[in-house]
Prior knowledge:
By secondary structure, this protein is of the alpha+beta class. It has one domain: 2-Layer Sandwich (Muramoyl-pentapeptide Carboxypeptidase, domain 2), CATH 3.30.1380.10. Helices cover 32% and strands 18% of the residues. It has 7 helices and 12 strands. Strands 5, 7, 8, 9, 10 and 11 form a 6-stranded mixed beta sheet that branches. A two-stranded antiparallel ribbon has the order 1-2. Strands 3-12 form a two-stranded parallel ribbon. A hairpin with a 6-residue loop joins strand 10 and strand 11. Helix 3 packs across helix 4. The protein is globular.
Amino acid sequence: MSKVGGRKSYSPVLIKECGEGMVDVKKTLPRVVVLLDKDRPDGAAYLRKTVAAMLGRALKKLPPGMTFVIRDAWRPAKVQQDIMESFVVRFRRQHPGWTKERAKKEAQKYVANASGVMASGHMTGGALDVRLWKNGKRVPMRSWKLTYQENAGPYQPKLPKHLQRNREIMYRALSEVGFSQCHNEFWHWSYGDAQWAKRTGAGVAIYGVVETPTKSR
Ligand SMILES: [Zn+2]
């Protein structure tokens, strides 16, 4: 990333698909809880093989009794489009004065495109939405006193200290194994996708969009 005239600018990201297959996380990492917050035909969480292996390494870095809960992993294009539309509706409901264009602009900060080079990392199998569970219960990481946007930011000084500590546990485990965190969403992490290539400065992504989760052998 470089700054031109005070504005952030990025070099274009190239995608060199490596062809790696995906695995079903429920089968490869049975300790990880899969609780997708969007409907899927089979309820399975698919990730690229390397990404699932990285998650397995991160799992070992968590304190005893703690595990990850996956709220989303690979995502088909249709679901990506539906999410964008639901965000526009949500923001217009929360801000009745906003035009549809303003709500869409706000939604685009949180929801990636469903096509093109910068299509959502979820569509590549390189990205996942993740939180922590301890002894079968959700580990709290957001405050009900803050807005969606305030809670979403990874560095939120308004968050009570105990919630910040919970986020730090997740941050440490995932970043130490090579995942990169989305700047707008503390729960969204990726490796190998275009957003990862942009954030880390790698420049070349190894995972492009995959229309059907092909199983890795
Ligand atoms: Zn995500």
